[in-house]
Write a structure and sequence with these properties.
The chain is an alpha/beta fold and 376 residues long. The chain has 14 helices and 13 strands. It has an eight-stranded parallel beta sheet with strand order 6-7-8-9-10-11-12-13. Strand 7, helix 2 and strand 8 form a beta-alpha-beta unit. Helix 4 crosses helix 7, helix 5 packs antiparallel against helix 6 and helix 7 packs parallel to helix 8. The longest helix is centred in the middle third of the chain and has 18 residues. It starts with a strand and ends in a 7-residue tail after the last helix. The mean pLDDT is 97.
Length: 376
């Protein structure tokens, strides 16, 4: 006997959708299929509804431990649950300390124990002082390791190409996955200095300080690293179709490279930031409307294999443009609670993509990339 049977709905898988019932026992899915002869304590009529797998948000910043004035694990994972996300892979920055060794891993695990509304896994830090700790972090259970090639807040660290290569060499030895914030540090810092010297930087200056050329330069480096060393590389938050095309070319050559994008790059453009300000500040920045629209092609064809939130909330005053300027205001968009709904609206309802793209991009692919498939 099941605790609950959900009947009459359409169960959505990555390779298709079928009419099926779902049997739930002890809080877990125990069966999917024809359940008309089975008994349950409770029945739920899902006729006319799609039954989607829980989303795996593979890129989120939940700020716990250490930055909980922005958000804590309870509120962040509750928002995830409300949005249909059943697994969050939490980033290692906006943590004190960053998740850089086994001691930090154990401390974070203990801090979060019993405080999550959904399942979770951790990204580990990849810094210039913890390269020898990466294998131990892998054994502890980290799903991937995060490198910043572009500017990052003071609680983390930008790596030089030389150090990034050392990290990649280490990760290649144990099959680890390296995720890259792929923007070129020198290009960005040079443009920030130029605009600051010309007067009070504007919103347009912020966008122009992070041109697509900075993203392309960093991605070329990462692709070369991956192909040369055989290390698994994951390009985070791709913002432009030209970047996605570089990745597609490397994938066709057989490079072990995957990539993600976020809903804000698929539905917003630089127009929102120019008109409404720092609430739309993120990095890489929002691009043109033409670039936004073309990025969808790489979601549809699977080059961008995962849709994530890059959820990065903050207090309202941290976005204050008057107080901090366009370069100093916090960069991040909060979206963990709305990614799945927005993707369904834009991909399925508006673009008429097959509904199984939901299971592929939000669930199966991120689970496969981050080593959770079979559990998720």
């Amino acid at each position: 006997m099941f605790d609950t049977i959900i009947y009459g709905g359409t169960a959505v898988f990555e390779d298709g959708a079928v009419r099926a019932g779902i049997g739930v026992k002890d809080g877990k899915i125990a069966a999917v299929g024809e359940l008309s002869g089975e008994e349950a304590l409770r029945y739920v009529d899902a006729r006319g509804c799609c039954l989607l797998p829980g989303a795996v948000d593979c890129h989120a910043h939940l700020n716990d431990p250490g930055f909980t004035w922005r958000e804590d694990f309870e509120t962040g994972t509750a928002a995830a649950a409300a949005g249909g996300v059943t697994t969050v892979i939490d980033m290692p920055l906006q943590n004190r300390p960053p998740l850089f060794d086994k001691k930090a891993f154990d401390a974070k695990l203990a801090t979060l124990d019993g405080r999550a509304a959904v399942d979770y896994a951790f990204w580990g830090a990849a810094l210039d002082y913890n390269i020898d700790d990466l294998e131990e972090l892998d054994a502890a259970g980290c799903a991937a390791y995060k490198i910043f090639l572009g500017p990052v807040s003071d609680d983390y660290q930008t790596l030089t190409h030389e150090t990034a290569e050392k990290v990649a060499e280490k990760a290649a030895k144990f099959g680890g996955l390296i995720g890259f914030h792929a923007e070129d540090y020198d290009i960005i810092k040079g443009l920030e200095a130029k605009f600051s010297a010309e007067g009070a930087p504007t919103r347009r200056n912020f966008l122009d300080s992070r041109p697509v050329e900075a993203e392309l330069a960093a991605v070329r480096f990462v692709l070369g690293l991956s192909e040369r060393l055989g290390v698994r590389a994951h390009i985070c938050h791709v913002s432009h179709p030209a970047v996605a095309e570089l990745i597609a070319e490397a994938q066709r050559r057989g490079a072990p490279v995957t990539a993600e994008t976020c809903m804000h790059y698929l539905i917003f453009s630089e127009k929102e930031l120019l008109e409404k300000g720092m609430i739309f500040k993120c990095a890489p920045p929002l691009r043109s409307e033409e670039a936004r629209d073309a990025l969808w092609d790489y979601v549809k064809n699977g080059v961008l294999a995962a849709i994530c939130s890059d959820h990065s909330p903050c207090r309202a005053d941290e976005k204050d443009e008057a107080a901090h300027g366009v370069f100093g205001a916090w960069g991040g968009i909060s979206g963990i609670q709305s990614t799945a709904q927005l993707f369904y609206e834009y991909a399925v309802n508006r673009k008429k993509y097959p509904v199984e793209i939901m299971a592929r991009e939000l669930s199966a692919n991120p689970a496969k990339i981050f080593g959770l498939y079979g559990q998720k």
